[in-house]
Amino acid sequence: MSGITCGVTREAQTAQQAETISEGSATDSLPPTVRAARPSESAPLKVALGAAFYDDPVFGWLIGPGSNRPDRVEQYFALQLAHSFADGCVWTTDGLQGAALCMPPSHWRLPPQLILANALSFTRVFRGRLPRAVGLLVAIERRHLRGPHYYFANIGVAPEAQGQGLGSALMRPTLDRCDEERLPAYLEASSERNAALYERLGFECTEVLRFAGSPPLRLMTRQPQPQL
User: Fold this and answer.
1) Which residues contact 189 (CB under 8 A, 6 or more apart)?
2) Considering only CA atoms, which of 62, 55, 39, 14 is closest in space to residue 211?
3) Where are the domains of the chain?
4) Which of 190, 188, 197 is nearest to 220 (CA)?
C-alpha cells in the first residue's frame, strides 16, 4: 500500500500518522488511535461495517428485510473493501471497531472489471432489488463531484463503539491531507445523524438525492480548511 493511497505525502509520514493520529478531545477516556488497515483484516472490518449500516435507511431500501440481511450487507462491504485496498486506503483502529474507506483523486469510481468480476456477488446482495440498486448507483455517479478531490466511500463504526468520537477520528487523516493539498473532500450521507457529524467536520450539503422513492441521500462537500 503506497503512501499516496493512504492519504499522506511520504511513507515515513504514513508510519508516523498510523501510530499517532487520534481525535484528542473526543472523550474523557483515551482517544482512539487510527492506523492504516491491512487487507488481511477485511473479514472483521466487513462485520463492523455491516453492523454499522444494518439499520441504515438507504441500505434498508436497497436490501430489504430478512434474516440473511446481515450477511448481505457484509458481502457488499467486502466488495467495497476490495476496491479501497486496491486503489485507496482503509483507516481503522487496533480494535477494528470501524473503518473509513478513502479514495484519492481520480479513483472514486468502482472499476468496471471489479464489477464484472463480482457480478454474482452483487446479485446475491441486492437480489430482486438489483435494478433499483444499479439505478441509484448510476444516479449517484452522475452527480458525483468533478475535479480533483478525496472521496469517503464509506465510514462506519460498530454500534458498541459509537458515541466515542471514533467516526471523526477515522476521517481525520484524509481531512488533514485535503487541507495540506488544498483539495475538497466529498461523500454521500445516508442518514440525518451521519450528516450532522459531517457538518461538524466542515461538510456542507450541496444536493439531496432521491431515486425511485429512496430515502434521501445527502451529497456533501468539504472545502479545504486553513491549517493551524
Assistant:
1) 195, 198, 203, 205, 217, 218, 220
2) 62
3) 32-131+138-175
4) 188
CATH of 32-131+138-175, picked from 3.40.50.300, 3.40.50.150, 3.40.630.30, 3.30.10.20, is 3.40.630.30
Q: How far is CA 175 from the centre of its chain?
A: 13
Q: How many CB atoms lie within 10 A of CB 193?
A: 10
Strand order in the sheet with 204-209: 34-36, 89-93, 98-103, 150-157, 185-189, 217-222, 204-209
pLDDT digits (tens, 9 = 90+) for 66-112: 768 889 999 999 989 998 999 999 999 999 999 999 999 988 877 66
Kindly report the pTM of this predicted structure: 0.84
**Residues 62 and 136 sit within 8 Å (Cβ to Cβ):** yes
Q: Buried b / exposed e across 6-26, counting CB within 10 Å, b at 16+? A: bbbeeeebbeebbeebbbeeb
CA 119 to chain centre: 21
